[in-house]
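step=encode ok
step=design start
structure_in=
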C-alpha cells in the first residue's frame, strides 16, 4: 500500500521560509518521480514541482521558480520542498504525490502565510 506523509507545514510570516518533507513507503521510492501540489482555500489543485527518480531533473511551475526548491533523499524515502520568501498567496494545503503521473497522494500539510 502506497503511503505518503507530509510534514513541516505551519504558520509563517510573509518573507519567511519553510521546508516540507514527504516520507514514502509501500513502493519502490527510488524508482519513481515525485510531485508537490497545493490547494489554496476555495481553489483547485495547483502543481508546484516535480523531481525525477534520481533527482537529476527538476521541474517547477513558473510562479515558483527561484523561491521553491525540490529535492529528495532516496536513502530516506523522502522528498523535500524548500520554500523561501513566502507570500500570503502561498497559503494552501501542500500535498506530495508519488509518480510523475501520480498514483498515490499524502493527506497534506497546511501552510499558512500571515503576519
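sequence_out=
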Amino acid at each position: 500500500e502506497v503511503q505518503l506523509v507530509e510534514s513541516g507545514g505551519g504558520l509563517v510570516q510573509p518573507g519567511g521560509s519553510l521546508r516540507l518533507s514527504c516520507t514514502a513507503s509501500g513502493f519502490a521510492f527510488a524508482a519513481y518521480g515525485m510531485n508537490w501540489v497545493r490547494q489554496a482555500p476555495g481553489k483547485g489543485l495547483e502543481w508546484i514541482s516535480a523531481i525525477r527518480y534520481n533527482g537529476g531533473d527538476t521541474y517547477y511551475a513558473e510562479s515558483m521558480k527561484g523561491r521553491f526548491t525540490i529535492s529528495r533523499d532516496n536513502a530516506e524515502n523522502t522528498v523535500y520542498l524548500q520554500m523561501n520568501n513566502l507570500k500570503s498567496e502561498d497559503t494552501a494545503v501542500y500535498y506530495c504525490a508519488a509518480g510523475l503521473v501520480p498514483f498515490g497522494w499524502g493527506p497534506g500539510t497546511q501552510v499558512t502565510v500571515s503576519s
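step=design ok
step=annotate ok -> The chain has no helices and eleven strands.
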